[in-house]
Amino acid sequence: MDAIILAGGLGTRLRSVVSDIPKCMAPVAGKPFLSYLLDSLKKQNVSRIILSVGYLKEHIFKWIDENRNNYPFEFAFAEEDSPLGTGGGIKLSLSKATSDIVAVINGDTFFDMDLDAIASPGAAISIALKPMDDFDRYGSVNLDEKGVITRFNEKKYLKSGLINGGIYVIDTARLDLSSFPERFSFEKEVLEPLAGKGMLHGTVCDRYFIDIGIPSDYAKAQLHWGGYDTLLLDRDGVINVHRSGDYVKSWEEFEFIPDFLKTIPEWSSHFRNIFIVSNQRGIGRGLMTQTDLDTIHSNMRKSIEKVGGRIDGIYVCTAVDDMDYRRKPNPGMFEEILKDHPEVCRERTVMVGDKETDMEFARRVGIIGLKIDWQ
Length: 375
Description:
By secondary structure, this protein is α/β, with parallel strands linked by helices. It has 2 domains: 2-211, Spore Coat Polysaccharide Biosynthesis Protein SpsA, Chain A; 227-371, Rossmann fold (3-Layer(aba) Sandwich). It is built from 11 helices and 18 strands. The chain has a 7-stranded mixed sheet, sandwiched between helices. The chain has a 5-stranded parallel sheet with strand order 16-15-14-17-18, with helices on both faces. The protein has a two-stranded antiparallel ribbon with strand order 2-3. The chain is elongated, with a radius of gyration of 23 Å.
């Protein structure tokens, strides 16, 4: 089949991290995100790739030209002179398709799916669905016992549900977009009206899924593909919410960042070592005691373990003086980790923090630093 990759979006949510290239070209562990999509499609029944391009498309043209020999596909382009929306991009790309069955993939989403398994006989559109817990970033999808999609729901918090995984398999004999305008939303003007009419089928798969459209998930993608085995975490702003103008001085004042609790089980299965590296000047200033901090961290670790995560060690510096060798961004705490854990290798260690101090710490000790923003 032909496969369309939608790569024409403006990437506004990711612009604080990646501003001068299309989202699909955002570097992940030293390679464009697009390369992971193409590597995955090598395993599928796909012989031709149609790239729907627009914003900063020259970067995509150049990279494909330099790397096309690494892939077994024929490449074609559907070029948008102005943004056409998801529907317009799909309609334009379908006009260049040569197969009756066409897959559609979002250029900023990776979902480890088998396209042949998604395709449902008799469906105009077959959709990959991802089970998800504790989410409000995505709308949910209702699926009946026959695998027919009956409804798309607006975004709201759900304890658990199915989301649209952003992969479609379209039977062009059953879906005609010719009457639609040049620019339109595929989700609002095609999928939602067809729900409940028997034309949309869903396949549920609980395999790896990442949408790099926001900075926090972009950072998660770096960790997934980076080949790292040791993870260092800042605490305040990464694990728990900052207290504005104050310190977290007791367990009652400690508030987990919800997205961290959702992510730490995945990180715990992925990394050999996970250590906290944190400045805690509140003790040095006499605003709390070491016992207070130990109580916070004991309860924090128990709560993390309850959701299936773990913390293997906690390193803190309580000094007030910025020149203290142990205080980030100075390297003292990392040197302690190397002494306590000889298996830790700089080349396979990554630091995740929310402040420039954390990134400077990573630079000084010679490891990769990733700045995360959970918003």
